[in-house]
Amino acid sequence: ADHETGGLELMPKTPGMAEIIDAQEFRGQKYIKDVSAWKKKGSVTTETAYGRLVERFGLSDLSPESAGHIRKAVEQTLVDGQEDDRDPEIQEMYGKRNAAVISCQHALADRAGARWTSYKHTGVPVPTTAVGPGADLFGGEHDNTDIGKRLKQLISGQI
Fold first, then answer.
1. Residue 137 carries which DSSP code?
2. pLDDT tens, 69-80?
3. Residue 117: pLDDT over 70
4. What is the DSSP letter of 96?
5. Where are the alpha helices (DSSP H) in 10-143?
6. Residue 150 in contact with residue 44, Cβ under 8 Å?
7. Cα–Cα distance, 124 to 77 (Å, whole number)
8. d(Cα 43, Cα 34) in Å, to the nearest integer?
9. How many CB atoms lie within 10 A of CB 60?
């Protein structure tokens, strides 16, 4: 587990896992700010926002189902107004979070063979645990940024 509300599971032998994750240009937080600015200014269409996010997340060759899901999340995210008029399915999946960015992050994680057991986070320090090859790299307490670095080294064969 990487925090007290859940953890990360990596599917074994996912080809090119590190390269898939590296295709993302920036952290998700930057995209959340971008999408919020696009919404506030009303400066982009759903299709333009969809295209920018898919490109920036490195999500070429999406299945029609994945592309449709991301488009729907982008469209619902760009809706104006204070009330949450998003589709109930989108509200349930993403809560108050930016559905456009989260849907891209889910697609990227799926492609990379990563599964999250929870999307909730708190600031409580917790010991990390792991099972399988390289588990010794994750036992104990670590800075959260070191975990990502160690995962990347492990899946790219550097360790």
1. G
2. 999 999 888 876
3. no
4. T
5. 17-22, 28-41, 46-56, 64-77, 88-94, 99-112
6. no
7. 30
8. 11
9. 8
Which tops the pLDDT comparison, 117 or 65?
Answer: 65
- Residue 51: what pLDDT? 93
CA distances (Å), 154 to each of 10, 13, 71, 132, 157, in order?
A: 11, 12, 33, 11, 5
Q: What is the model's pTM?
A: 0.64
Residue 49 has pLDDT above 90, yes or no: yes
CA distance linking residue 73 with residue 4, whole number of Å: 28
What's the rounded mean pLDDT across residues 24-50? 82
Distance, in Å, from the CA atom of 108 to the CA atom of 103, rounded to the nearest integer, reads: 9
Q: What single-letter amino acid sits at 36?
A: S
